[in-house]
Amino acid sequence: MTQSPSHTLSGPGLYRRMAGASIVAQLRYPGTFVIQAIGNFVTTLLSFFGIWSLFHRFGSIAGWDIGTVAVLYGLVNVAFAVAETLGRGFEVFGGEYVRTGSFDRLLLRPRSTLLLLLGHELRLRPIGRFLQGLFVLVAGLWLAPHVQWSAVLVLPWAIAGGAAMFLGVLIGQAALCFITVEGLEVVNVLTYGGVEAGQYPLTMFGRWLRRFITFVLPLAAVCYYPTLFSLAHPDPLGMPTWIGALSPAAGFAFLGVMILAWNRAVAGYVSSGS
């Protein structure tokens, strides 16, 4: 019996095929794609103008200059844009798979459900946020007074760790849908709220929130500490600067925990019967 082509493809090969089909479908209407990307770029850029206006008025705030904060802003937005591009299947999982019973069909396929949901849609709209964040990140490096040469290595590593962390949040949200059926809006506190919190120095938050975004949701590990390391900026909270070179690994550790939670949730899934 002849196997279908999808059975003979490796996991990465299958993902490339699904991602390619998704990109072609979105580019079928290029005008819509361009308008959405520009809208995403302008909307996110306007949010940075609010931060810029504060520093334009006061110069520096509590020892933080506009260059350092711009690097924080750009880093977290680029990382979130990557996760948003890859994680669309998990974001819509409750409504499109659990509530309709479509997840049953995924379980019948001889592939990992994580891989199939990653291939649900490679969304291109976040490219606007990505480009805007990258622009602000480069501008921040230009404006910052002390930029380490190692930033060339550490900042991409931090972006990868941040994307892994945000993707982990989306996977955790999808795992909750086995219990709640629909996605919980409260999870947006960890996604969009995390993006907002990551744009500011850790010292601006209360102790309980600092601990939460350091040890529970490792936002500081993938954004704040790598920025301090890259700009040779001492940490007012007393952490050694070198920690920023290693801390993005916490984003991948968080992703690993969320994948374990996902596998546990899938193992306990009871079919809707549809």
Automatic annotation (TrEMBL):
Domain of life of the source: Bacteria
Keywords carried by this UniProt record: Membrane, Transmembrane, Transmembrane helix
TM segment ranges: 33-55, 61-83, 157-181, 212-233, 239-262
InterPro entries documented for this protein: ABC-2_transporter-like
UniProt keyword Membrane present: yes
UniProt KW Acetylation keyword: no
Name of the protein this chain belongs to: ABC transporter permease
